[in-house]
Amino acid sequence: MEKPLNSAIITDFKITTRMCVVCRGRFPQKDLYRFQEKDRKLVSYTKTGRSFYICTQCIKQERKRLVKILNGKFKIKQINIEELAKQ
Ligand SMILES: [Zn+2]
Prior knowledge:
Blueprint: H1 7-13, E1 17-19, E2 26-28, E3 32-38, E4 41-44, E5 52-55, H2 56-60, H3 63-74, E6 78-79, H4 81-86
Parallel strand pairs: 4-6
Antiparallel strand pairs: 1-2, 3-4, 3-5
This protein binds zinc ion.
């Protein structure tokens, strides 16, 4: 007779996922970049304040489109290319 699955074991196998703010898809945290808005610019998360995630696919898309989406959500007007390259 099989034992019912232990909930603690299920938790161990569960991968922590976060939502990409651009495509709204869910991805493991390691496949996401973490950012925040500072002075209307997209910057790397500084461990303080509100942060959000963008997936590796969305980061690669056309910058103009990315800015448009981020502007609608966070009033971000500028994406610092160097900031993205650092990660
Ligand atoms: Zn995405």
